[in-house]
Model the fold of this input.
Amino acid sequence: MVATWTRRHTKHEAMEIIGAAGIPAGAVLDTMELQNDPTFEQRGIMQTIDHPVVGPFKMIAWPVRFSGSPPPVKPAPLLGANNDDVLTTWLGFGADQVGHLRSDNIIG
Done:
């Protein structure tokens, strides 16, 4: 009986009809529907970042809210982008050691 009824309605129609009857209901959205849902962009759930290789790219924002709004998302650093910081700050290498690694093509 339920299957017959649901075939006559879209998932959004079914959600509205069931919700109007006082029963909590929500449409289960597929990945593409989530990606293109305009309310997700309005609420900051989906944000567009400018990726240095692929250009503008829509992705899900961090779900935690501070002061009522999601923090902005940014692309992850490219491979090797933080080599100098990791080698000098974290591992204590000197600038000359990092220079030798770079000149010997060990790091980029």
